[in-house]
Write a structure and sequence with these properties.
Length: 157
């Protein structure tokens, strides 16, 4: 199995880039991770929310393959604790999922078409985080999930 992470817009904060880089290196010991950045929509501020979601949605759909099991990082998604998330990853590995594709949408969420292809939605918290911050948080949780699966001491619970 591999993991694909699709995001809208680049990460421009140095501290976030540094943190993501640390977890990318750590994750390589467990699984192949492909990080895909879709550029921000040009002149997005001049577009209504629904048009911006639609344009982003078309770009997202262009990055998804038939092998991808799509999971949206969405504030209305299922909330896991770290052990439940690690079991979710493990179950997908056991069930021969070829690619888990996690998607972080733009500031207004996802288009209806993107929602329609998703197999599930995942929320990392009941709190709201910036779209750039959630990337680092998700990387850390992904790393934590693999250390739990391997019985490694990173997660002390």
């Amino acid at each position: 199995m591999k993991i694909k992470i699709i995001v809208i817009g680049k990460t421009d904060k140095a501290f976030l880039k540094e943190g993501m880089s640390i977890y990318e290196k750590r994750l390589k010991h467990y699984i192949q991770v492909e990080f895909i950045t879709i550029p921000d929509i040009k002149n997005a501020r001049n577009l209504p929310m629904d048009q911006q979601r639609e344009k982003e949605g078309q770009l997202i759909l262009g990055k998804i393959t038939k092998d991808d099991k799509v999971i949206l990082l969405d504030e209305r998604g299922k909330v896991f604790d770290s052990f439940e998330f690690s079991r979710f990853i493990e179950n997908n590995m056991i069930n021969s999922t070829k690619s888990l594709c996690f998607i972080v949408g733009g500031p207004y969420g996802f288009s209806d078409e993107v929602y329609s292809i998703a197999s599930s939605k995942l929320s990392l918290s009941k709190m709201t985080f910036s779209h750039q911050m959630i990337r680092l948080i998700f990387y850390e949780q992904l790393y934590r999930a693999f250390t739990i699966l391997k019985g490694e001491p990173y997660h002390h619970a």
